[in-house]
Specification:
Blueprint: H1 3-8, E1 20-24, E2 28-33, E3 36-41, E4 46-47, E5 50-51, H2 59-74, E6 82-84, H3 98-101, E7 105-109, E8 112-113, E9 116-123, H4 126-135, E10 137-138, E11 141-142, E12 152-158, E13 161-162, E14 170-171, H5 174-181, H6 183-205, E15 209-221, E16 224-228, E17 237-241, H7 257-265, H8 279-297
Antiparallel strand pairs: 1-2, 2-3, 3-7, 4-5, 6-7, 8-15, 9-12, 9-13, 9-15, 10-11, 13-14, 15-16, 15-17
């Protein structure tokens, strides 16, 4: 299959008129379905908080399949909201949309979401690096002096953020999180986030991938506090190849850094309208996502 055909197969938006659209995020379309939610991961990609005009082939399938892998891997540590990702077990009215749903969708339990991004950082990068340069701290946590960009931290830190549908998420201190969620829930989420991160990071390290940081979302269901949305994907995490890791600079990664670098190179002012991506940038980014899945899950992306 040639590259143009591959690009033409991207799914940028779903349209299921038989069902109520619950929400449309930067990447996912969510539909209400008899007490459940249908999560559909499109191939949309956002950068600098804007959805770009060009989709990334296979991205939605990678996000879904990698989340499913981690849900299974982590089920002994934390529960999750998944009901099924097998389209043959979906309600009958969904069957006619099988071609759009296959491999990129999940039927999940509705959850009362905690309105906090639970971020864990094992390395100093991104907004954490910027904040450290200015204050020597990240989200109120004092860090050793003299750290470089991408340095490994003495131990992983929990740095919560407020969730925003548009615009940048805002880093907050743990004390501020306690005010918003109550200290008991805040403590539970901090401890659980650190535990999940460490288990995943140890596993990935054995495969040659550094999980520099990641963000989790949690919600309350009838089963209690569960992991929800996506988990440990290239959209929600920084994955670095360990064999190319070199602190003191930004790192190569298995995420959308390739897209960010392109947008920086064309001097986009980071205001709408967001530009399109050249074919080679979209395809290279797709390769990065698929490679991350292949290494972490230990198998090829399931065929359509």
């Amino acid at each position: 299959m040639n590259s143009s055909t591959t690009l033409n197969r991207v799914l940028l938006q779903t349209d299921f008129p038989d069902f109520t659209l619950h929400a449309r995020g930067k990447v996912r379309d969510l539909y209400s379905l008899n007490g459940h939610l249908l999560f559909v991961a499109t191939d949309r990609i956002s950068a600098f908080d804007y959805v770009l005009a060009t989709g990334i082939p296979e991205k939605g399938r990678v996000l879904t399949q990698l989340s499913l892998f981690w849900f299974e891997f982590l089920k002994g540590t934390v529960g999750n909201h998944l009901v099924t990702a097998d389209i043959h077990q979906y309600p009958e009215p969904l069957k006619k949309y099988s071609d759009q749903l296959r491999g990129r969708s999940m039927l999940v339990n509705k959850a009362q979401m905690v309105d906090i991004e639970c971020v864990v950082r094992g390395y100093l990068s991104g907004s954490g690096w910027k904040e450290y340069q200015q204050t020597g701290k990240v989200c109120g946590i004092e860090l050793p002096k003299g750290l470089r960009e991408s340095d490994k931290l003495p131990e992983p830190i929990f740095t919560p953020a407020t969730k925003a549908l548009s615009g940048h998420d805002e880093n907050i201190s743990f004390a501020e999180m306690c005010k918003r969620t109550g200290p008991e829930l805040a403590g539970t989420l901090r401890d659980l986030s650190l535990k999940v991160y460490q288990k995943a990071a140890d596993y990935a390290a054995g495969l040659g991938i550094i999980i520099a940081d990641t963000k989790f979302e949690f919600g309350h269901t009838l089963q209690g506090l569960v992991l929800a949305d996506e988990v440990l994907t290239p959209d929600s995490s920084r994955f670095w190849p360990a064999d190319k890791y070199s602190p003191g600079r930004a790192q190569e990664s298995f995420d959308k850094q390739y897209v960010r670098d392109y947008l920086e190179s064309i001097k986009w002012n980071k205001q709408p309208p967001a530009p399109s991506l050249p074919e080679d940038v979209a395809l290279k980014t797709s390769e990065k996502y698929i490679q991350a899945y292949r290494i972490l899950a230990g198998r090829e992306l399931p065929p359509l």
